[in-house]
Amino acid sequence: MLCQRGHRIHRARCDRQRAQALLRVRERIARFRPTILINVPTMINHMVSHPAAASHDLSCLRLATSAGEPLPVELYQRWKRTFGVELLDGLGTAEMWHIFISNRPGQVRPGTLGTVVPGFDVKVCDDEGRELPAGEVGVLWVRGGSRALGYWQQMEKTKEGFRGEWYVSGDMVRRDPDGYFTYCGRADDLLKVSGKWLAPQEVENCLLHHPAVKEVAVVGVMGAHGLVKPYAFVVAQEVRDGLAAELQAFVRERLEPYKYPREVIFLDALPRTHLGKVDRARLRREPV
């Protein structure tokens, strides 16, 4: 169970830390006037959610980048409306030591990771390593000169991840006919619901368009009959009677019916790892 009192104490501590971090970012931008800002979605959300965000001067920036976790379309749009600065989302891994897919200045497609960075090759494959056509979701394979040789003293993990010239990341992506890639989650994050695959990020992006939703994470929770069902953990602007049912209907009206969250659970704050990412494993372990 999530301890409510402990959770509120943890939230208060995290709120103070986020406020301090945001203040440091603002002070450094004001002092040094950088032209490029390296950012992550968690901090992007804090920056645009600040009550005085519209008054923050980011006119020195030519662009900002985002990486580390998925960047929802809604968050990109809020950032662009608030600061007028282009935000470039992309994907890289420690194993490749580089960003290998990225949006480009003037060519951003919100909700996508962009296109392949020169010097790298990327393909989308099925579980057997066969390349898939555009539009289908599969496992990301990447190769390039910066690729690592393997994992130190972890032979089995190395054999699983490094296949000849290629690194198999475990990220699930979709490539459109124009070469833009959309992130669909980690292979172990995808849910099999009613016999069909469900990417949690699709439901999260949908819910973020509802005005009552501040933050959300969708995970698969094993039900009483051994079936996995999507649960939505929501940080709401204000919790009110009937909001859970309203959010479920909101998803059903916009996505395929099987994708709606079977339960909506409201939290003061989403649990996060030491890296600031949503702790999905904890949500799966402690659904109520």
What brief labels describe this structure?
single chain; 288 residues; alpha+beta; Rossmann fold; Luciferase, domain 3; GMP Synthetase, Chain A, domain 3; 3 domains; 7 helices; 15 strands; 28% helix; 29% strand
What does this structure look like?
- It is globular and about 50 Å long.
- The strands form four sheets. The protein has a five-stranded mixed β-sheet. Strands 6, 7, 8, 9 and 10 form a five-stranded antiparallel β-sheet that branches. It has a three-stranded mixed β-sheet with strand order 13-14-15.
- 28% of the residues lie in helices and 29% in strands.
- Residues 1-7 have low confidence and may be disordered.
- It has three domains: 1-85, Rossmann fold (3-Layer(aba) Sandwich); 91-187, Luciferase, domain 3 (Roll), CATH 2.30.38.10; 191-285, GMP Synthetase, Chain A, domain 3.
- The protein is built from seven helices and 15 strands.
- The protein has 288 residues and is of the alpha+beta class.
List the helices and strands and how they pair.
Layout: H1 4-32, E1 36-39, H2 41-49, E2 63-66, H3 73-83, E3 87-93, E4 98-102, E5 115-116, E6 120-125, E7 137-144, H4 155-161, E8 162-163, E9 166-175, E10 181-186, E11 191-193, E12 196-198, H5 200-207, E13 213-222, E14 228-236, H6 243-254, E15 263-266, H7 280-285
Parallel strand pairs: 1-2, 2-3, 14-15
Antiparallel strand pairs: 3-4, 4-5, 6-7, 7-9, 8-9, 9-10, 11-12, 13-14
